[in-house]
Write a structure and sequence with these properties.
Elements lengths: L2 E8 L5 E5 L5 E4 L2 H15 L8 E6 L8
Parallel strand pairs: 1-4
Antiparallel strand pairs: 1-2, 2-3
């Protein structure tokens, strides 16, 4: 596998959550540095040795409310 993509959002209770597209992987972190490390760890745990993707892409999604 060449690449895995995670959708990253700010969690309502603070911090960040990340979920993989096409795989059953979900993790959270209080800071961006913590989230990056937890994403790496979750990918290592999810895939067998040698089957891990070579690249992890984080796609950031942010909701913004604008009143009329």
């Amino acid at each position: 596998m060449g690449e895995i993509i995670f959708v990253v959002e700010e969690a309502p209770e603070g911090g960040f959550s990340a979920r993989a597209l096409g795989e059953s992987i979900f993790t959270q972190g209080a800071t961006m540095d913590e989230l990056r490390e937890r994403v790496r760890d979750a990918v290592r745990c999810h895939f067998d040795e040698g089957a891990q993707p070579g690249m992890i892409r984080l796609h950031f999604v942010r909701d913004e409310l604008i009143t009329a």
